[in-house]
Amino acid sequence: MASGNLTHLTEFILRGVSDHPDLQMPLFFVFLVIYGLTVAGNLGIITLTSVDSQLQTPMYFFLRHLAIINLGDSTVIAPKMLVNFLASKKTISYYGCAAQLGGFLVFIVGEIFMLAAMAYDRYVAICNPLLYMVVVSPQICLLLVSLTYLYSLTTALTVSSCVFSVSYCSSNVINHFYCDTVPLLALSCSDAYIPETVVFAFSGTNLFFSMIIVLTSYFHIVLAILRIRSSEGRRKAFSTCASHMMAVTVFYGTLLFMYLQPRTNHSLDTDKMASVFYTLVIPMLNPLIYSLRNKDVKDAFKRFLKSPCQAFKLV
User: Fold this and answer.
1) Helix %, strand %, coil % for the chain, to 5?
2) Which one, of 59, 80, 62, 297, lies nearest residue 174 by Cα?
3) Where is the G-protein coupled receptors family 1 profile domain (predicted)?
């Protein structure tokens, strides 16, 4: 099973977060709680931004799609991971592995550019408030989201095809808890130069262009806030983008650490910890970041609790 050409390989073995037997059950419950909170939090954001009339703005349109992406990202990873904590043989089929890698890439690239779109939205809201509803019109919002999904899908198909074009001869044991590019290519016994180059090029390009959008947007936002004379005005302007700034800092910081290391410095065990953070912990944290620091979302949640039927327009 672990030898031969790629076409003869039918499954991979995932080592998981830890292969220590005594840790499997505690880790299962830890990640079950994380995934449960992720599902509840993101479904809550999706529901509130869909049904509440006061959250029908571009900012919450993007937030709804960020929640959809976060839910998708964790769902691609967590269920199989949880099953493997309880299984004696932690396997994933060849096609299941390819599908998991493709799904992961769709959502992680989607999150990168959705956060960039949200940064642009905040830039227009603070720097050009009078033109906000014209510049960030419903048509523009739909176009940005559609392009994000289309580009994410294209990237996923290209990168996963390259990764699964190599041969495996010595081992089918993936030192990870899901099928990711780096641990998969580490198993290759054929020349992986082209797939590694493609992975590095896409990772670097995506991070570079999305970070340019984010940093440029926030550079102008900071300048605009500093020009506001009243401290109350500055505080109010800053509060409209504080949640997004926090989410961006955590997400991009983890991705930069993960993907822009030279290959020689890569530690797969260190990468696993970073991966836990951006595939499972960040999707759980984002709904908390955007709800606990956001008065509109908290007010919408209170209205929903008071009259859920009216929120869904059932009465």
Assistant:
1) 80, 5, 20
2) 80
3) 41-290
Instruction: State the sign of the Cα–Cα–Cα–Cα dihedral 181, 187, 188, 194.
Output: positive
C-alpha distance from residue 205 to each of 134, 198, 209, 210 (Å)? 30, 10, 6, 8
pTM, two decimal places: 0.90
116 contact partners, CB below 8 Å, separation of at least 6 = 209, 210, 211, 213, 214
Under DSSP, the state recorded for 172 is -
101 Cβ neighbours under 8 A, 6+ residues apart: 156, 160, 163, 164, 179, 180, 181, 184
Q: Tens of pLDDT along 241-269?
A: 888 888 888 888 887 776 666 555 556 66
Residue-wise pLDDT tens digits, 270-311? 778 888 988 999 999 999 888 876 778 888 888 888 776 665
For residues 75 and 103, give the distance between their C-alpha atoms in angstroms, rounded to a whole number.
Answer: 9
**Contact in structure between 126 and 224 (CB atoms under 8 Å):** yes
Q: Do the beta carbons of residue 193 and residue 95 sit within 8 Å?
A: no
Torsion, Cα of 12, 256, 42, 293 (10° steps): 160
Decide if pLDDT at 170 tops 80: no
Question: How far is it, in rounded angstroms, from Cα 67 to Cα 39?
Answer: 9
d(CA 31, CA 34): 5
Q: Which of 155, 151, 6, 156 is nearest to 76 (CA)?
A: 156
Does the pLDDT value for residue 179 go beyond 70?
Answer: yes
